[in-house]
Specification:
It is a single chain. By secondary structure, this protein is mainly beta. The chain has five helices and 23 strands. Strands 4-3-12-7-8 form a five-stranded mixed β-sheet. Strands 5, 6, 9, 10 and 11 form a five-stranded antiparallel β-sheet that branches. The longest helix is centred in the middle third of the chain and has 8 residues. The two termini are 42 Å apart. The structure holds ligand MTE.
Length: 389
């Protein structure tokens, strides 16, 4: 209960004296009353915090941009704290002129700004076998969306001069895991960026300071952080991260590999298990949709587990390969609900049910689960993660 002395008609305590002066917080931070809006992890999920994942608090965010302090992190060897003065980006292999670039060198190339989502291929992976984690932070929080500033990778490759047999790139990170992935040259020459800023300021160490690779629409694992080297070759390298990991075992025993693009997906962020309903009546339902194959065309919402669908309202920028915010306003009479959302992207692809996904890919996968999520709203407003048949 609020303290009555601060409520009208009284003069609240914060109006009775001067507040702190400017620069009392040289780097701003949220109100202390927002202290629960933080990244979280699931302790039993991984053996150590160095090779682990934290999750974006999607249920407490608005719009489409993830604040720099709240984007999920996925590290395989902990956070590298890099002194940019001692960092270099090497470009070598099948090039005419190998390059050894400082951060300042990279900043002398023409810049681009691009808003893009990054989704880990394992996002929602724990839900393949059935409803498991209670909250969209945990089921869908391996995603963030920021504005990157950097130089098109194409520009750097032009500077190095690609040889005619250049077909693949091997970006490598400077962290303890030395993350490496094979990237086809077509993507590098299309929309890949070597980024040094996110949301207007230098990358945060968690996200690859001072340089990271940005591959819009493609699985997060390939967006190499702490980027120190790009080798140009004529075939893929079949690294650990694209053989034993980031592949999916299909029911016939074949492995699905090089599944780069993230298919269309959506999630209702509020209401959701961590954001229960507190009262009946007019209710604002809010969520996020995205596609690695283009812009979101439309989102549908169901209140009854997929029997009836209604069009959601998209609001804010609807950008290619970026998060898109949707809303659906309705009157809640206190009856139980089965909330679902379904995204359609500009290619016409419709987000599938989990059952349809399992039919094709079986149960051995953890990657690329873009199935429709169901939230069960109970009469008391509490919400749980369920599946409908
Ligand atoms: N790059 C390096 N060098 N080391 C890593 O551990 N993790 C990858 C990718 N790039 C990783 C990396 C994975 S699996 C993902 S999903 C994304 O970074 C996560 O990016 P984020 O931590 O900025 O959210």
């Amino acid at each position: 209960m609020p303290d009555a002395k601060n409520l009208p008609p009284n003069v609240p305590e914060w109006s009775q004296s001067l507040g702190d002066g400017v620069v009392s917080r040289p780097y701003g931070r949220p109100s202390k009353f927002e202290a629960d809006v933080v990244r979280r992890d699931v302790e039993w999920l991984t053996a150590s915090r160095q090779s682990s994942v934290s999750f974006t608090p999607l249920h407490r965010l608005e719009g489409i941009i993830t604040p720099n302090g709240l984007g999920f992190e996925r590290h395989h060897g902990g956070i590298a704290e890099i002194d940019p003065a001692e960092h270099r980006l090497m470009i070598h292999g099948l090039v005419e002129k190998p390059l050894m670039l400082t951060l300042e060198d990279v900043k002398r190339f023409p810049r681009v700004n691009r808003i893009a989502f990054l989704e880990c291929a394992a996002n929602s992976g724990m839900e393949w076998k059935g409803a498991q984690l209670n909250g969209c932070q945990f089921t869908h929080g391996m995603i963030h969306c920021v504005m990157y500033t950097g130089v098109p990778l194409k520009r750097l490759l032009e500077e190095a001069g690609l040889k005619t047999n250049a077909k693949w790139l091997l970006p490598e990170g400077a962290d303890a895991s030395a993350m490496t992935r094979s990237v086809p040259i077509e993507k590098a020459l299309d929309d890949a960026i070597v980024a040094y800023a996110m949301n207007g300021e230098a990358l945060y160490p968690e996200h690859g300071y001072p340089l990271r690779l940005v591959l819009p629409g493609w699985q997060g694992n390939m967006w190499v952080k702490w980027l120190r080297r790009i080798k140009v070759g004529d075939e893929p390298w079949h690294t650990r991260e694209e053989t034993s990991k980031y592949t999916a075992l299909l029911p016939d025993g074949q492995a699905r590999r090089f599944t780069w693009a993230m298919d269309a997906k959506s999630i209702i962020t509020d209401p959701s298990p961590q954001a229960p309903l507190h009262r009946k009546g007019f209710t604002v339902l809010s969520g996020l949709a995205w596609s690695g194959r283009g812009a979101i065309r439309s989102v549908d919402v169901s209140l009854d587990g997929g029997r009836n669908w209604r069009a959601a309202r998209l609001d804010g920028p609807v950008l290619d390969k970026a998060l898109t915010r949707f809303y659906y306003e309705f009157d809640w009479n206190g009856d139980p609900l089965l909330l679902q959302s379904r995204a359609v992207d500009e290619t016409g692809y419709v987000q599938p049910t989990k059952a349809a996904l399992r039919q094709h890919r079986g149960l051995n996968s953890i990657y690329h689960n873009n199935g429709i999520q169901t939230w069960h709203v109970l009469p008391n407003g509490e919400i749980e993660n369920v599946e409908v048949a």
